[in-house]
């Protein structure tokens, strides 16, 4: 599987959201990454259904929605209806994770589970065969622009090994501090989807920054 790039619209210019969405449409990016934060699960608030719907109106590539919220089951249907193509929930926020994953699939979306930096990958053993995507957080969720946590390489390799026999087509996504300085090593240990926020939107030539990540 060739690796995928998912620019995070959390880092976009919200006064010019349509422009930035169309930039991603016309770039070599594969997905849009959409971070939903509620101020409770993480110490920040991002946006909700209206922004997802607005992005979907112009997006020509899939919306990869990442729910960093408590009790995400309340809103799965709403995000699916707003335009999510994949919905990722946090292991730490879902006491009945199997049920949540099945609910996402029943809505016709790709189903993912995310783990925070301090969450051991071993906890995914009983769910990894059932998910389409595992998102390994390489920073503590809540804010962009943080420093990449080096232990992420080990965690990605563990997820890759765990999924080799039970779910070989698993998307293994990394979110936080991803850029040209570490993407090659992350690919080497097994990651195949990369969320890119500041490394894309702070670049003078954003399509070129995406193209560089695709070439890695």
TrEMBL record:
<dbReference type="InterPro" id="IPR000056">
    <property type="entry name" value="Ribul_P_3_epim-like"/>
</dbReference>
<dbReference type="GO" id="GO:0006098">
    <property type="term" value="P:pentose-phosphate shunt"/>
</dbReference>
<feature type="active site" description="Proton donor">
    <location>
        <position position="175"/>
    </location>
</feature>
<feature type="binding site">
    <location>
        <position position="8"/>
    </location>
    <ligand>
        <name>substrate</name>
    </ligand>
</feature>
<feature type="binding site">
    <location>
        <position position="33"/>
    </location>
    <ligand>
        <name>a divalent metal cation</name>
    </ligand>
</feature>
<dbReference type="GO" id="GO:0046872">
    <property type="term" value="F:metal ion binding"/>
</dbReference>
<keyword id="KW-0862">Zinc</keyword>
<comment type="pathway">
    <text>Carbohydrate degradation.</text>
</comment>
<dbReference type="GO" id="GO:0005737">
    <property type="term" value="C:cytoplasm"/>
</dbReference>
<feature type="binding site">
    <location>
        <position position="175"/>
    </location>
    <ligand>
        <name>a divalent metal cation</name>
    </ligand>
</feature>
<dbReference type="InterPro" id="IPR011060">
    <property type="entry name" value="RibuloseP-bd_barrel"/>
</dbReference>
<keyword id="KW-0413">Isomerase</keyword>
<comment type="similarity">
    <text>Belongs to the ribulose-phosphate 3-epimerase family.</text>
</comment>
<feature type="binding site">
    <location>
        <position position="66"/>
    </location>
    <ligand>
        <name>a divalent metal cation</name>
    </ligand>
</feature>
<dbReference type="Pfam" id="PF00834">
    <property type="entry name" value="Ribul_P_3_epim"/>
</dbReference>
<keyword id="KW-0464">Manganese</keyword>
<comment type="function">
    <text>Catalyzes the reversible epimerization of D-ribulose 5-phosphate to D-xylulose 5-phosphate.</text>
</comment>
<dbReference type="InterPro" id="IPR013785">
    <property type="entry name" value="Aldolase_TIM"/>
</dbReference>
<feature type="binding site">
    <location>
        <position position="35"/>
    </location>
    <ligand>
        <name>a divalent metal cation</name>
    </ligand>
</feature>
<feature type="binding site">
    <location>
        <position position="177"/>
    </location>
    <ligand>
        <name>substrate</name>
    </ligand>
</feature>
<keyword id="KW-0119">Carbohydrate metabolism</keyword>
<feature type="active site" description="Proton acceptor">
    <location>
        <position position="35"/>
    </location>
</feature>
<feature type="binding site">
    <location>
        <begin position="175"/>
        <end position="177"/>
    </location>
    <ligand>
        <name>substrate</name>
    </ligand>
</feature>
<dbReference type="GO" id="GO:0019323">
    <property type="term" value="P:pentose catabolic process"/>
</dbReference>
<feature type="binding site">
    <location>
        <begin position="142"/>
        <end position="145"/>
    </location>
    <ligand>
        <name>substrate</name>
    </ligand>
</feature>
<feature type="binding site">
    <location>
        <position position="66"/>
    </location>
    <ligand>
        <name>substrate</name>
    </ligand>
</feature>
<protein>
    <recommendedName>
        <fullName>Ribulose-phosphate 3-epimerase</fullName>
        <ecNumber>5.1.3.1</ecNumber>
    </recommendedName>
</protein>
<keyword id="KW-0170">Cobalt</keyword>
<dbReference type="InterPro" id="IPR026019">
    <property type="entry name" value="Ribul_P_3_epim"/>
</dbReference>
<keyword id="KW-0479">Metal-binding</keyword>
<dbReference type="GO" id="GO:0004750">
    <property type="term" value="F:D-ribulose-phosphate 3-epimerase activity"/>
</dbReference>
């Amino acid at each position: 599987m060739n690796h995928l790039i998912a620019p995070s619209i959390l880092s976009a210019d919200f006064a010019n959201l349509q422009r930035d969405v169309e930039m991603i449409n016309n770039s070599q990016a594969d997905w849009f990454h959409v971070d939903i934060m509620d101020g409770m699960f993480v110490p920040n608030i991002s946006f909700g259904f209206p922004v997802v719907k607005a992005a979907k109106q112009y997006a020509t590539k899939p919306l990869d929605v990442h729910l960093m919220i408590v009790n995400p089951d309340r809103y799965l249907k709403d995000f699916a209806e707003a335009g999510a193509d994949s919905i990722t929930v946090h292991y730490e926020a879902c006491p009945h994770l199997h049920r949540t994953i099945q609910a996402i699939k029943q809505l016709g979306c790709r189903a993912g589970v995310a783990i925070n930096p301090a969450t051991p990958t071993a906890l995914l053993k009983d769910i990894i065969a059932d998910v389409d995507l595992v998102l390994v957080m390489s920073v503590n969720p809540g804010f962009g622009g943080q420093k990449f946590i080096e232990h992420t390489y080990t965690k990605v390799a563990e997820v890759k090994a765990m999924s080799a026999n039970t779910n070989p087509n698993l998307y293994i996504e990394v979110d936080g501090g991803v850029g040209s300085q570490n993407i090659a090593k992350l690919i080497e240990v097994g990651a195949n989807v990369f969320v890119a926020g500041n490394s894309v939107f702070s670049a003078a030539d954003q399509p070129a920054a995406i193209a560089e990540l695709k070439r890695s």
